[in-house]
Write a structure and sequence with these properties.
Radius of gyration: 24 Å
CATH architecture of the largest domain: 3-Layer(aba) Sandwich
CATH superfamily of the largest domain: P-loop containing nucleotide triphosphate hydrolases
Order of helices and strands: EEEHEEHEHHHEHEHEEHEHEEHEH
Strand content: 25-35%
Number of domains: 2
Helix content: 25-40%
Number of strands: 14
CATH topology of the largest domain: Rossmann fold
Strand order of the largest sheet: 6-7-8-3-9-10
Largest sheet: 6 strands, mixed
Shape: elongated
């Protein structure tokens, strides 16, 4: 569905070269739900713009939905949908009319465009809003309309750029419910970017992480967390001296000490914690509290890049 090799794009800014994407190698099979993650400035949006033919690559090749992005951009656009970060509907037409107009722009006959608009209104629970103008809709309703516009021509592949950013938790959940229903109904390949890591963790079959213009990790969310982050054990002791002693008994584990708190990374906390506690008891260190936690995708980011995606990268 997506085959990209050596895809590169370099911008010029104030006479200084800024490398946005320095070489992307990526294959996405039909039917996959792929989360494409990275901090601001990592190259996510540039990559999406190249794959959707909105921006020509400096070098490299890419085939999207069976068409070359450089030699057959019209063929690519006919086979993909794109839901950008901004709202796609105009302000002066009613919701149903907007869907019909988009269908006509994609070459659908009038009757087919009308049927398709009605189908999407029902599928995305937009029927009660059919005669309202987009400017009167809530944020969640507008995102559902954006998704309908991206699907009006039945694309094989749908690009979703931050589909739930700025929505309240209830609206985010509703949008995702509709996205997953659409995927089940049509088998559409979904390629999305998001800063909400719990979405990628729970929804995506595959997570691709980009930083500094290149892919630095690729796999399932669970696999990346196990391989790159590991479980976390946190204990507290009565004194700072005991905490320092406890930290010294961790062997090869990555360990942090803050006052009387000791945090360490291990491959399997369920088996490592009992053994660690027995070791500390044997040397006379009294543990006041102990807990374990599974890693998150943000832990993976921290391990790979030295910074957290949630620090300051949520779009505004």
């Amino acid at each position: 569905m997506i085959h990209a090799r050596g895809l590169t794009r370099v911008f010029k800014l104030k006479k200084e070269a800024v490398e946005a994407v320095r070489g992307i190698d990526l294959d996405v099979e039909a039917g996959q739900l792929v989360a494409f993650l990275g901090p601001n400035g990592a190259g996510k949006s540039t990559t999406l713009r190249m794959l959707t033919t909105l921006l020509p690559p400096t070098s490299g090749t890419a085939t999207v939905a069976g068409r070359d992005i450089a030699h057959d951009p019209a063929g690519v656009r006919a086979r993909i949908g794109y839901v950008g970060q901004k709202n796609g509907a105009g302000e002066n037409f009613r919701v149903r009319d907007e869907l019909v107009t988009h269908g006509r722009c994609y070459g659908l006959a009038p009757a087919e465009a009308s049927r398709r608009a009605d189908e999407l209104l029902d599928l995305l629970d937009l029927r009660p809003l059919a005669h309202r103008k987009p400017g009167t809709l809530s944020g969640g309703q507008r995102r559902r309309l954006d998704i309908a516009l991206g699907l009006v021509h039945r694309p094989e592949l749908l690009f979703l750029d931050e589909p739930s950013t700025g929505l309240d938790p209830k609206s985010r959940a509703e949008v995702w419910s509709h996205i997953l229903r659409l995927r089940e109904a049509y088998g559409t390949t979904l390629f999305l970017t998001t800063h909400y890591l719990e979405e990628a963790d729970s929804m995506a079959e595959r997570v691709v992480i980009i930083d500094n213009g290149g892919i630095i990790a690729d796999g399932t969310a669970e696999g990346l967390k196990n391989d790159l982050a590991g479980d976390r054990i946190t204990i507290t002791t009565a004194t700072e001296q005991e905490a320092a002693t406890a930290a010294g008994m961790t062997g090869e584990a990555a360990v942090e000490v803050e006052g009387t708190t000791v945090r360490l990374r291990v491959a399997n906390a369920a088996t490592a914690l009992p053994e660690y506690l027995r070791t500390l008891e044997a040397i006379g260190v009294k543990v006041a509290t102990a807990e374990t936690a599974r890693p998150t995708l943000d832990d993976v980011f921290l391990t790979l890049t030295g910074r957290s995606l949630t620090d300051d990268d949520i779009p505004t």
